């Protein structure tokens, strides 16, 4: 990756990507297990340098520091490409512009991934159904997330 590629992206995307890459390095070194990072939606500034066990915990901690809208992303062991950081930012901004916030009431500690940015057609339909109905589309005892099954905490 050259510096010219980095110059193509706005500052919020760069901040999110850099923070997620640092979390990925810490995860690969065994310093942390993984979790959720929280950012200010307006400028992509990380609200904390640590990962939280759930989206709700990340939101609670960040709301102590700011009243801004938040972007909460699950840390992946391989970091985050620029396009994915941009997609996550645009997705959450679109939800906020439509007057919808991913409700933490739909999640449990084991199912924080239910509210992560949808990556497949099935996930997009599931997310829309959940947001419209106001309740989770899978049973509470079913673990769900965007990480592969062998990396999930519930397993």
| Major sheet attributes | 2 strands, antiparallel
Series of H and E elements:
HHEHEHH
Which percent bin holds the helix content? 25-40%
Query: What is the alpha-carbon Rg in Å?
Result: 15 Å
What structural class should be given to the helix and strand makeup?
Answer: mainly alpha
Number of strands: 2
Q: How would you sum up this structure in a few lines?
A:
Helix content is 39%, strand content 6%.
Fill in the keyword field for this structure.
single chain; 155 residues; mainly alpha; two-stranded antiparallel ribbon; 5 helices; 39% helix
Folded structure, characterized:
By secondary structure, the protein is mainly alpha-helical. It has 5 helices and 2 strands; from the N terminus they run ααβαβαα. Helix 2 crosses helix 4 (82-97). The model has no long low-confidence stretch (mean pLDDT 78).
